[in-house]
Amino acid sequence: MEAQPSRPDPSPGAPSPQAQRDELADLQRRIAELEGGGRPRRHRWRSFLSAVLVVLAALLSMLSVVAVWANSMVEDTDRYVDTVAPLAADPAVQTAVTNRATTVILEQIDVKALVAELSTAVQQEGTRPAAAKLIGELDGPIENGLKALVSTTVQRLVSSSAFETLWTDANRVAHRSLDKALTGKGGGAVTLKDDQVAIDVGPIVERAKDELVKSGFSRAGRIPQVHSDFVVFSSQELAKVKTYTRILQIVGSWLPVITVLIAAAAVFLAAHRRRVLVAAALAVAFGMLILGVSLTVFRGIYLDRLPAEMSQDAAAAVFDALVRFLRSTVRAVAAVALVTACGAFLTGPSRAAVTIRHACASGIASMRGVAGSAGLRLGATGRFVHRHKRWLGGLILLIALIVLVTWSYPSTVVVLWIVAAVLAAFAVREFLDEADDTADGTRRDGGEKVPQPS
Fold first, then answer.
1. Neighbours of 87 (CB within 10 A)
2. What is the pTM (predicted TM-score) of this model?
3. Taking Cα atoms as reference points, which of 325, 291, 318 lies closest to residue 302?
């Protein structure tokens, strides 16, 4: 009796019989749905509801970012100080503060009256007519010189580190005394009136007065204590913005959670969950793009509507500082959304995703083979990783999510570092993945048989 020819072993990269049966069953199910007139009615309703939830999640994601920003600006003093502190070194703001403080000081000194008093005093002392005439002709230069002295003194003060400290301390005290300028509550160095946010430059005038006295201008010592406002933000719609900010402050802690739950519900209801996850992530990223563009457009509208007496450059610097962390959050959320979309796509069955996964796995398997040739033996560790590979992957993602959620105001750089750490962890998991020893004394490593060392 002739021996039956042995059946050739399946190629290492071929799918298992069970996978082939599952694929055949899936194809039969799809053919049955098509022959029956398409998807069941239940799937169509689920798909429609899932799409609505995706759009809602994208819209709420924009509100969530603004709400978190508004809430942090109101509740977090350090966050507010970090926001406004760079303005002390901004040239446009320094120039505007210098001009305002100089104007206040000159109003108190009355340089013209001082020069007129000097001329009268010279004539009363019996000075020669020629000298008295000369002093009278120098009234203009003397007046300009005193104004220049005041301006230079104030400018030197504003451009020094002392002003940065004064600016930071004043804003820290102001934040503790009110619910920020946009809420319209409280008092202190920052006030809200006539649709304007203004900072009291009285402390700067007081410091400049001391510097003028030290420089020999003793008349400056007679300047009384003054309080004058330096307008940093002005808008006719500030009352409405104040109301909206208050609402966003209240919902700021819960709106992001609600948004995530709605997006999760959209994925759960979908017939093709991976596709909907990709769509939801891309929708959120698109929402962040719209929000970023809206900030740029609103900036131009705000600057165009400023009163003529306000410095355009200083107002632009203040606006950019106030929304700096908001822009950072927009970029960070967009990065998270894009990474999520890429991750969901790469875990899918598409040819591109399979090719990328196979290339990565082959490269890591080659590295593992080289390490094995050099004497590395994974043993129980490799078998443990192989048996619990999926759970370890979930644990890696869970740890990354916890780090991202608990990080105070994560930036785009933080998101990218977390992504890099996750990719590195998955690479290590793949490297350590080693199947159990087989009965013929060989082991499976990366889908290929590798002879066991003697």
1. 23
2. 0.69
3. 318
